[in-house]
């Protein structure tokens, strides 16, 4: 059993604030944090029934929101893990122009702020990160910034590299040129049919008003490219534990990125599990795959808890 916390002590209201979410809901009625730029970020917390044994920060992907990770979070709470997440700037119920970011590092900065808040409220607990897609890139760079702070990362179809067909030298040159000329030019929207093999999940994604169904601007694409470049440079220095989960039919984040990370990282505790035929959102793929992914994630995290807590539930 889990409890989704919708108020104190996790809400951080500003006295006299009348700020409202993009959906028109006053932030005083929503759990949120306020980032370093003064923007309000909508948060979710899934609290286990028993005393938490660890904290798990969940980083969602581009164009989606953290509400799509309830199944995963509830699985984690069943193992006495406290899961928490927020909608990134420009996503879901958080402030900011939709999928517009001046610097990819803002996502990392905000993630560290949220993690620090939770660490201060639950001192001494190990901290894990679970990141999907763009959230995988955020997770990697967050852990690289503080390599000794995290007990491990779980990366679901992470964006480690740009897809080869979209990152040829000619296309990169054109993208950089267009970025300076027309940064708001749309590169087209995410093709939802490649998110999952489960048509019900695709329909749910398409009908979710909190997802961004508009085009991805070239300025946002350039920030993703910058993030991939930073990750490429960081890979040989990565030594923290990680679990990579990727479908070999993923057309949104190339599995080669996960393979390169597994090969280049110096981590002694690392694992890559490939799901044959699976698409991008493994946690929302066909039921057998999704269930396997949830079990794989929770088992991996529990096995890395302090020994005295592993047998508790």
UniProtKB/TrEMBL annotation:
Give the InterPro entries listed for this entry.
Answer: AB_hydrolase_1, AB_hydrolase_fold, Hydrolase_4, MAG_DAG_Lipase
Please give the superkingdom of this protein's source.
Eukaryota
- The residues covered by the Serine aminopeptidase S33 domain are 51-286
What GO cellular component entries does it have?
A: membrane
State a single Gene Ontology molecular function.
Answer: monoacylglycerol lipase activity
Record's protein name: Monoglyceride lipase
């Amino acid at each position: 059993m889990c409890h989704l916390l919708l108020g104190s002590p996790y809400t951080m209201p500003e006295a006299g604030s009348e700020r409202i979410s993009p959906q028109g809901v006053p932030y005083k009625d929503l759990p949120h944090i306020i980032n370093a730029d003064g923007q309000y970020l909508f948060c979710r917390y899934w609290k286990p029934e028993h005393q938490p044994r660890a904290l798990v920060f969940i980083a969602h992907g581009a164009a989606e929101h953290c509400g799509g990770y309830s199944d995963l979070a509830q699985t984690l709470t069943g193992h006495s893990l406290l899961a928490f997440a927020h909608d990134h700037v420009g996503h879901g119920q958080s402030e900011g122009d939709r999928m517009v970011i001046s610097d990819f590092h803002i996502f990392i900065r905000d993630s560290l702020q949220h993690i620090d808040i939770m660490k201060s409220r639950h001192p001494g607990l190990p901290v894990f990160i679970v990141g999907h897609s763009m959230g995988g890139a955020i997770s990697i760079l967050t852990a690289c910034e503080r390599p000794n702070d995290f007990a491990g990362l779980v990366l679901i179809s992470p964006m480690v590299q740009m897809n080869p067909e979209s990152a040829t030298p000619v296309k990169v040159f054109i993208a950089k040129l267009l970025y300076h000329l027309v940064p708001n030019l749309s590169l087209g929207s995410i093709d939802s049919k490649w998110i999952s093999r489960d048509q019900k999940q695709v329909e749910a994604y398409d009908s979710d008003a909190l997802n961004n169904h508009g085009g991805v601007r070239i300025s946002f694409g350039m920030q993703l490219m910058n993030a991939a470049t930073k990750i490429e440079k960081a890979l040989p220095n990565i030594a923290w534990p990680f679990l990579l989960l990727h479908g070999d039919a993923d057309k949104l984040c190339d599995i080669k990125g996960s393979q390169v990370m597994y090969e280049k990282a110096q981590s002694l505790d690392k694992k890559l599990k490939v799901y044959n035929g699976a698409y991008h959102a493994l946690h929302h793929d066909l039921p057998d795959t999704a269930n396997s992914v949830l079990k794989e994630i929770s088992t991996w995290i529990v096995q890395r808890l302090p020994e005295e807590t592993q047998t508790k539930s």
